[in-house]
Design brief:
589 residues, 20% strand, 22 helices, alpha/beta, 3 domains, single chain, Alpha-Beta Plaits, 8-stranded mixed β-barrel
């Protein structure tokens, strides 16, 4: 039985008000029906009164009912809207109206008690789900900005404040410094005394560091035993070295942990903008490099040796080699399987690039991808990656394997508005359905240029390509942006998944992301599943799928074929498969 509706606004000239009231009554509603003759009147009425839903017509005077939808969103009005077309409408236009904010739409010729009743029920459900999602998003924003153990800003908030400081510094012509601090022997304390002892030590270290930094500085926890300090003012090399001395001095005295006195040293790396970098990622990377130098030399602290000719020559040589890596067939794709919780079988793979350098061996992506972005090689590298992934997808399809493939995109690629044309050509070349390609983008890639990212992603979505938000929860993407971008999937960052069974705040974040994703109809993928207990916990929360070393490490294509034939996640012989509704694989027969 439909829920009761107290007030409904009808703003649809030409629609018989009595007919609407009768249809709603026949559908089981007790209705207080109000009317508005123009878009201006409708906006005023919705603004002043609390309607359970509004019914808008296509021919509403003052620019029409469709033009009113963005005005409602612009005023922050959340009243659910049912939109009525004069004639049966094509899917593309219906999708446009839904994206603009309507909860349902159909033609006047389809107006029956059953249809209007279902529309009102869905409008109410949409309104409730949206409010829950907004509340959960606010809670998540608070939970994801700070480290739960120390209450310090986390990596995401630290990057945000650094970006702001750098923006001001470029305008005012002053220096900004980042100090990276790494504790010594922290892993030994965890292993010998317990993780609980390690947590106590981290809280005490935090209190000492708070005393050492200035009120204008930002102290953050970036990882297990890694802290960082942002100095937005007084950040000359001399000022940063003075801060490093204060940090090391603050940590010098022994700690009493579980009744035992423990001495814990630290190393500090320093990077100063603009000399050592103009963006937050580069500065932090250089501070980490300097921290490693300090630890190796046992010098306490070190400043990034950006002018070291040996290191510069090494980087230049690697960048030069990277330009030829594609032509020399040195790049290779590995694939990490994703498993559906519903079927227990493979539902896709993520393609991951590796560089087999003839001299340096296997070069990790976190070393050569930044080089590719800095030198402009990212464009041909991305083209190779997509072509190879779709070529392999085509081979699997010929073997009877339904394996949608996910590919990570660089932020620079997302800003290229000709990129969708390239995707269309590659899909056509390898005869791969657009829905079998999932493009993974990070939250920062969206937020760096929202307008351009929106245009590019909208075109890809219109083509049928699925968009996934990678590392979700570590940045600031609003669910309203996700809705506008028509994102199909979010991937819970592995930093939350890894600790969800031991850190309550991480468990809350994972649960909240899954609940919000489900309320918005998104596919939710969990990264970093390393044991069966985590698998069971995610399954109980209603997560759609996952990947991680509990299932498989990334494998080259040939090894993956063997794995598919022998693994418990896919027991049927290769090619002897039956498609499932969500793209999973199971034994035929």
């Amino acid at each position: 039985m439909p829920g009761r509706v107290e007030k409904i606004l009808l703003a649809a000239p030409g629609i018989d008000e009595d007919a609407i009231a009768a249809a709603l009554l026949a559908a089981g509603f007790t209705v207080e029906l109000h009317s508005a003759g123009t878009a201006v009147d409708a906006l005023e009425a919705i603004t002043e009164h609390d309607f359970d839903c509004a019914i808008l017509g296509e021919d509403l005077p003052d620019d029409g009912g469709e033009a009113l939808l963005p005005d409602l969103q612009g005023h922050g009005i959340e009243t659910p809207v049912i939109f009525l077309f004069n004639e049966p409408v094509q899917t593309a236009r219906a999708m446009r109206v839904m994206r603009a904010g309507a909860s349902d739409c159909f033609a006047i010729s389809e107006l029956t008690p059953e249809r209007i009743g279902r529309a009102v029920v869905m409008a109410r459900r949409y309104h409730i789900a949206r409010n829950k999602a907004i509340d959960a998003e606010k809670r998540l924003a608070m939970q994801t900005l700070f480290d739960p153990l120390t209450n310090l800003p986390n990596r995401g908030l630290f990057f945000d404040r650094t970006d702001r400081a750098l923006s001001v510094s470029r305008r005012d012509g002053r220096e900004v410094a980042i100090l990276m601090l790494d504790l010594h022997r922290f892993r030994d304390i965890n292993n010998v005394l317990s993780h609980k002892a390690g947590d106590q030590l981290l809280r005490e270290v935090t209190e000492r560091l708070r005393e050492a930094v200035r009120t204008s500085d930002t102290l953050a926890r970036l990882g297990a035993d890694e802290f960082a300090v942002l100095m937005p003012t007084g950040a000359s090399a001399a000022g940063a070295m003075g801060m490093a001395d204060r940090l090391l001095s603050a940590l010098m005295a022994p700690y009493t942990i579980h009744g035992q006195k423990i001495a814990v040293g630290a190393s500090v790396g320093i990077a100063v903008s603009p000399k050592h970098g103009m963006d937050s990622s580069t500065l932090l990377r250089h501070a980490e490099s300097a921290c490693l130098d300090a630890k190796r030399d046992n010098s306490g602290y070190a400043i990034f040796a950006g002018d070291d000719p040996t290191e510069s020559l090494r980087q230049l040589s690697l960048a030069s080699d990277l330009r030829n890596a594609v032509d020399n067939n040195e790049l290779v794709l590995f694939y990490q399987p994703k498993i559906s919780f519903e079927t227990g079988h493979v539902c896709g793979v993520e393609a991951l690039t590796r560089w087999r350098h003839p001299e340096h061996g296997l070069v990790p992506p976190d070393r050569f991808i930044p080089l590719a972005e800095q030198t402009g090689v990212i464009e041909p590298l991305t083209t190779w990656l997509l072509n190879e992934a779709l070529r392999q997808r085509s081979i699997w399809s010929g073997q009877g394997l339904n394996l949608p493939v996910s590919v990570n995109l660089s932020p620079a690629t997302l800003q290229d508005e000709s990129f969708p044309d390239q995707i269309a050509e590659l899909l056509s070349r390898w005869d791969v359905p657009p829905t079998d390609l999932i493009l993974e983008i990070t939250e920062s890639a969206i937020m760096s240029d929202v307008m351009r990212a929106t245009r590019t992603v909208s075109r890809l979505n219109d083509m049928g390509v699925h968009i996934s938000i990678d590392d979700f929860g570590t940045g600031y993407t609003s669910f309203s942006y996700i809705r506008k971008l028509a994102v199909r999937e979010i991937k819970v960052d592995k930093s939350f998944v890894l600790n969800m069974r031991t850190v309550n705040d991480d468990a809350v974040i994972v649960r909240t992301i899954i609940e919000m994703g489900k309320s918005l109809g998104l596919n939710v993928v969990a990264e970093g599943v390393e044991d069966e207990e985590t698998w069971n916990a995610l399954q109980s929360l209603g997560c759609n799928s996952c990947q991680g070393y509990f299932i498989s490490e990334p494998l080259d294509a040939q090894t993956l074929d063997l794995w598919l034939a022998e693994s418990r996640w896919r027991t049927a012989p290769v090619g002897n498969v039956e498609q499932l509704p969500r793209g999973g694989l199971r034994s035929a027969g």
